[in-house]
Amino acid sequence: MVDVAEKAVTRRIAVAEGHIRTSPETLSAIVEGRTAKGNVLTVAQLAGIMGAKRTSDLIPLCHPLPLTSVDVEIAPEADGSGLRVTATARVDGKTGVEMEALTAVSCALLTVYDMCKARDREMVIGGIRLLRKEGGRTGTWEAPARG
Fold first, then answer.
1. Which residues lie in coiled coils (predicted)?
2. Between 20 and 30 A from 128 (CA), which of 20, 68, 101, 111?
3. Residue 144, class by beta-carbon neighbours within 10 Å (0-12 exposed, 13-18 middle, 19+ buried)?
């Protein structure tokens, strides 16, 4: 692990996003709660939160962090092409929570895929990226808007 002993404890926040493209029929089934495996949105949200809490077990060299909160939001894309997942991770610590936010998004998206793969094998996960980070030595950073 990277030595963070000399770093100051600061409030750190990271926001990440990603999407899963689905067929219109699959998206409708997810939103209306008509999938064979149950409530996809709730299970994926929980999986994202749990994934963020286990980041140090999943990603080599990540520090285990005492997260103060993890929020995972899942919403249909405005164009009806699938779902967008946004995760916000927070900690008061010596290192950032970017990996926790990215892991939350990844776990939520993979859970949607797992729960719907029998219905739609052509789903595509993508666009996983950091949107914003706050705190630490480098301060605030925001991703440029995609156009």
1. none
2. 68
3. exposed
Q: Which amino acid, one-letter code, is at 54?
A: R
Say if CB 52 and CB 70 are below 8 A apart.
yes
Name the CATH superfamily, with its identifier, for domain 20-142: Molybdopterin cofactor biosynthesis C (MoaC) domain (3.30.70.640)
The three-class DSSP label of residue 93 is: strand
Hey, what amino acid is at 5?
A: A
Three-class HEC string of 1-44: CCCCCCCCCEEEEEEEEEEEECCHHHHHHHHCCCCCCCCHHHHH
Catalytic residue among 3, 79, 114, 120: 114
| pLDDT for res 127 | 97
114 is catalytic: yes
How far apart are alpha carbons 41 and 9 in whole angstroms? 34
Give domain limits for the chain: 20-142
Determine which helix (DSSP H) or strand (DSSP E) holds 129, and give its type and residue range.
Answer: strand 124-134
Give the pLDDT band of residue 3 (cuts 50, 70, 90).
Answer: low
The C-alpha atoms of residue 122 and residue 3 are separated, in whole angstroms, by 43
